Amino acid sequence: MTRVPAPLLALAAMVSVQLGAATAKTRFDEVGSVGAATLRLVIGAVVLVLVVRPRVRHWTRAQWTAAVLLGLALGGMNVLIYVAFASIPIGVAVTIEFLGPLALSLVHTRRWRDVTWAALALAGVVLLGVGPSAVTAVGGVLAAIAAAACWAGYIVMNRRVGAAIPGVDGLAVSMVVAMLVSLPFGLSTAAEGVVADPALLLVFGGVAVLSSVLPYALEMSALRRMPTRVFGVLQSLGPAIAALAGLVILREALSTLEVVALACVTAASVGVTLTARRRRGSGPTDTPSDA
């Protein structure tokens, strides 16, 4: 893997995440959207705990609090975005969800120049608001907005967990918490689907690998060999990659307005990242892939 250029690894991670999401959506009729999120989180949590084997015996209350809050954000983000996927195209849902980390970046800016990026992102929101997906599926749009808020919370708490807990033990525990968040809402439909077709465990095992395990490994390898600011710019391609995955796997074509909105949000994200580069030099970028 060390011979593969780092930017390609980062792009591969994003492609993997969106392929996993699109694959999961093909099974919504069998397990429901929340059931699909539950299966992904359960399998992902089990795999991560078995691999990491987190050592939590001597954790402090502050460490447990940080890990639990991260898990709540992670669980909410996953469940809500899958709810959004059920009624609006994946490309639209991820574009709306991406407003979470983008808004978080803009909140921390102090330059008038950044108003331009905020206005561009707002234009994207307005265009999505008058697009066909928003008009016909308000609930899906609201779920994506809630997922965006959870993503912003995930970023904030991920920083705290990274500072408070060494290694990836905190992430493993947070995945278990995220799994527990989803179980009351998706366990019954997930169980019914698996009982009717046990092969779904293999399908969602693949989804968990594509959406969680593989992207994490690829991103970790990429970040060792590339500046985090470059990684942040590449992350801005997330909505476009999601739209492409939706088109190829699910035949979800976006309207012209939705494509323009996607371009506005992507451009705003790139602009914020590049502005931050000039402001902070090589400071860290805190925009992860969609977990």
Fold and architecture overview:
The protein is an all-alpha fold. It is 80% helix and 0% strand. It has helices spanning 6-25, 28-31, 33-52, 61-85, 90-97, 99-107, 113-130, 132-136, 138-164, 169-196, 200-223, 228-235, 238-250, 256-280. Residues 281-288 have low confidence and may be disordered.
Please specify the SSE layout and strand pairing.
Blueprint: H1 6-25, H2 28-31, H3 33-52, H4 61-85, H5 90-97, H6 99-107, H7 113-130, H8 132-136, H9 138-164, H10 169-196, H11 200-223, H12 228-235, H13 238-250, H14 256-280
Helix pairs in contact: 1-11, 1-12, 1-13, 3-4, 3-10, 3-11, 4-9, 4-10, 5-9, 5-13, 6-7, 6-9, 6-14, 7-14, 12-14
Q: What percentage of the residues does DSSP assign to strands (E)?
A: under 5%
What's the alpha carbon Rg, rounded to whole Å?
Answer: 18 Å
Whole-number mean pLDDT:
86
**Number of beta strands:** 0
Provide the succession of SSEs: HHHHHHHHHHHHHH
Low-confidence stretches: 281-288
Helix count from the secondary structure assignment: 14
Structural class: mainly alpha
Shape field: globular
**Main β-sheet, in a few words?**
none
Helical percentage: over 70%
Provide key terms for this protein.
291 residues, mainly alpha, 80% helix
Summarize this, please?
This protein has 291 residues and is mainly α. 80% of the residues lie in helices and 0% in strands.
